[in-house]
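With this grant's support, we have paired protein sequences with backbone structure tokens. One protein thus recorded is set out beneath this paragraph:

_____
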Amino acid sequence: MYTRLRFEGVVSVRTLVIYDISDNDKRSKLREHLRNSGLRHIQYSGFLGEVNTHDRFVLSREVAKFLSCERDSIYIVPLCDRCLRLCKIVSENRKDMEDAEIEIVS
């Protein structure tokens, strides 16, 4: 299995993980795995957090075990600073949306 590494000076970027997993048990285990990986639950099937390149690679290998059928998918999307500045969230719920870099449209 892969080992997560933490190095001084390694740049982490905001990373969005979204998924569509049909099996309830595997979906619950994936959520727990993403929380344990330091990501924050932002939507029913979405997590966000700071992840470096190596850990994003490791995460992509680890989450594959949660796929159970052809319809299932997991997207791991690194977001550059420009992407974050262009991001807009449309929501009535402002809870957990303290990120000053993201414009919240309600």
Remarks:
- Strands lie at 12-20, 40-43, 46-52, 73-79, 88-90, 103-105.
- The helical segments are 24-36, 53-62, 81-86.
